[in-house]
Amino acid sequence: MSSPRSANRPSDAPVLRVTDIRKHYGAIRAVDGVSFEVRPGEIFGVIGPNGSGKTTLFNSMLGQIRPDSGHIELKGEDVTHLGPLELSRRGVGRTFQTLQVFGRMTVRDNLIVAAQEHQGTLFTRMFAPSDSGLGKRADALIDQFRIRHVADRKAGELSYGQQRLVDIAMAFMSEPDLLLLDEPCAGVNPSLVGGISQLLKALNRERQGSFVVIEHNMDFVMDLCHRIMVMVEGKVLALGSPEEIRSNSQVLDAYLGN
User: Fold this and answer.
1) pTM of the predicted model, to two decimals?
2) 13 has which bridge partners?
């Protein structure tokens, strides 16, 4: 039997399709009829001012909150009512605004732990090697993220920027088909932002995965993403290429302030 991640589908079919998602809290329409698609291999950005509904939309897509109405499809399957664990098993990964590293564990062990729940069953893991057979995958990411020099150090001893790299690398350990990155540059030294952008571009090319990125750093989003969706007051204000968003007068007025 094929797994949900390996089911055949047209190569140009959307990895993610969000249709008319709505989430209201009393009179507050946090997300008010949002629809979009994420294509195979696409880096899709979501921007907007504080309170525009980005986080509520993200959490709806990740199964952490249930939308009031609308549909979310992952590779053609309706996953609107699935929780985070079920979505993870179907190939959805994520990072959080706040770091999720284990400070008392080494960098290498952080990566291994991040993928262990995807590695076989509890029974097979009991008899697996101490690294659950994930050591080679962890070492490859450690090299790609250029953190080999700190691989055996406890994550809590690292700088914030290094911990952010570890956090992102952990999300790639499960080899997700769709990765949702929640403000990957938050709190990061500006000198590291360009490096994160180049790293994500390289991972996108090599792994052919799709990314959805929420980020306040406009230069980062414009450089990284193939398409960008702008949200204002729970609605989609604009959706297009970085060039189209940059020249959109409504976006300039409502968000960029230029």
Assistant:
1) 0.86
2) none
